[in-house]
């Protein structure tokens, strides 16, 4: 099996910013509540763009530093729960826009763990020799499924995209992955209508069924337990200890979840990368953009051991250890 690594990262964040103060004018909330309960200060929202537009921005940013052209890509995977359309895949829209003519394209639906799932999938295609160069993107327009009248959820989410380009590397790369799911918990976080279970109708629109419904409190506890276990399991699979890890890049759903996981694992705060303050929860794009920003800020150096740790609706979870 070949070693597979990330050779470049990129991101694209829409320009428009919605602050907690702006939200105070929309629902019964306060900057103080949002900041202390979640760690979020602001989030970026699209004006007219769709998931593929954000994904293209992130893909071009990653390609720029990869030394590859779009024509060199033979695989594109977009992780998203807010695709441009139910079908065709958002990855196909991205392919056409960047001109990656020889790529095979598909989407992955694994909510906030989508980027880690997509990395693991691309790794399989490359290590088995089916593909050479893969583009993996986490791209979300969560504002399109957010109920802007529901204070329980609307303060949490934002829009954005992060990308990675994967190829064979001589050493290091993705050392271990741990993915898991628990389909008994679908009720905790979902968008009820718009699929084949509850197709769109006047009634589904009137009852606001096309928006995110979430049991935040139950999810909070599960997120802490599962992200802790996922981090422990992936390290075990890599044959490493927590003291070997240089930087943890967790899914950015809530700063309190992340700090509770860090405490359980006995990790120092400076080993945890946080950007939730600026972006909120961008589902599959959160881990992707956090990785990209950490690299661009010089917090990831060659030879460093990085731990990605994500959790989301499904339930699904995914952790990977990458030697940079
Ligand atoms: N402003 C002010 N008050 C609010 C707000 C708000 N925006 N939202 C809720 N409240 C109120 C509630 O109504 C409740 O009031 P009550 O006690 O009078 O009933 C009170 O605040 C406490 O509500 P809780 O839900 O218990 O608040 P909690 O501390 O749990 O924080 C939160 C809520 C931020 C949603 C938290 O539970 C959380 O982050 N959960 C996990 C989210 C997550 O991990 N999701 C999975 C990934 S996302 C994905 O896959 C797309």
Structure description:
The structure is a single chain. Helix content is about 35%, strand content about 25%. The model has no long low-confidence stretch (mean pLDDT about 95). By secondary structure, the chain is of the alpha/beta class. α3 crosses α4 and α8 crosses α9. The protein folds into 2 domains: about 170 residues, Thiolase/Chalcone synthase (Peroxisomal Thiolase, Chain A, domain 1), CATH 3.40.47.10; about 150 residues, 3-Layer(aba) Sandwich (Peroxisomal Thiolase, Chain A, domain 1). The protein is globular, with a radius of gyration of 19 Å. The strands form 4 sheets. A 5-stranded mixed β-sheet has the order 1-7-6-4-5, with helices on both faces. The structure holds acetyl coenzyme *A. The site of acetyl coenzyme *A has 23 residues, from α2, α6 and α8.
Oligomer: single chain
The SS-based structural class is: alpha/beta
CATH topology type of the largest domain: Peroxisomal Thiolase, Chain A, domain 1
Q: Mind telling me the CATH superfamily name of the largest domain?
A: Thiolase/Chalcone synthase
Total DSSP helices: 11
The biggest beta sheet reads: 5 strands, mixed
Number of strands: 13
Summarize the structure.
The protein is α/β, with parallel strands linked by helices. It has helices at 20-24, 31-38, 51-66, 90-98, 114-127, 151-154, 202-206, 216-238, 255-265, 276-279, 284-296, and strands spanning 4-12, 16-19, 42-45, 75-79, 104-108, 134-141, 159-168, 173-181, 189-190, 213-214, 247-250, 305-312, 316-323. Helices cover 35% and strands 24% of the residues.
């Amino acid at each position: 099996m070949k070693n597979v690594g990330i050779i470049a990262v990129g991101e694209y964040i829409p320009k428009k910013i919605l602050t907690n103060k702006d939200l105070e004018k929309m629902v019964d909330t306060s900057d103080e509540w949002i900041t202390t309960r979640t760690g979020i200060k602001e989030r970026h929202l699209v004006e007219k763009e769709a998931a593929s537009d954000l994904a293209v921005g992130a893909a071009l940013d990653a390609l720029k530093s990869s030394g590859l052209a779009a024509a060199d890509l033979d695989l594109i995977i977009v992780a998203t729960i807010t695709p441009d359309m139910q079908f065709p895949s958002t990855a196909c829209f991205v392919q056409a826009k960047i001109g990656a003519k020889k790529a095979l394209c598909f989407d992955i639906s694994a909510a906030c763990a989508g980027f880690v799932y997509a990395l693991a999938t691309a790794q399989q295609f490359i290590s088995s020799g089916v593909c050479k160069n893969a583009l993996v993107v986490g791209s979300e327009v969560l504002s399109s499924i957010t109920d802007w009248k529901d204070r329980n959820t609307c303060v949490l989410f934002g829009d954005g995209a992060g990308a990675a380009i994967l190829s064979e590397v001589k050493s290091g790369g993705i050392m271990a992955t741990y993915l898991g799911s628990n389909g008994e918990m679908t009720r905790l976080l979902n968008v009820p209508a718009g699929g084949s279970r509850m197709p769109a109708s006047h009634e589904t629109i009137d009852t606001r069924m096309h928006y995110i419904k979430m049991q935040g409190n139950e999810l909070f506890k599960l997120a802490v337990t599962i992200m802790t276990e996922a981090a422990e399991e992936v390290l075990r699979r890599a044959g490493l200890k927590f003291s070997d890890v240089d930087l943890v890049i967790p899914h950015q759903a809530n700063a309190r979840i992340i700090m509770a996981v860090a405490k359980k694992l006995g990790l120092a705060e400076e080993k945890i990368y946080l950007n939730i303050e600026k972006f909120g929860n961008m589902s599959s794009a959160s881990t992707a953009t956090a990785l990209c920003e950490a690299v661009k800020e010089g917090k990831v150096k060659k030879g460093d051991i990085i731990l990605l740790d994500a959790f989301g609706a499904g339930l699904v979870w995914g952790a990977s250890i990458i030697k940079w």
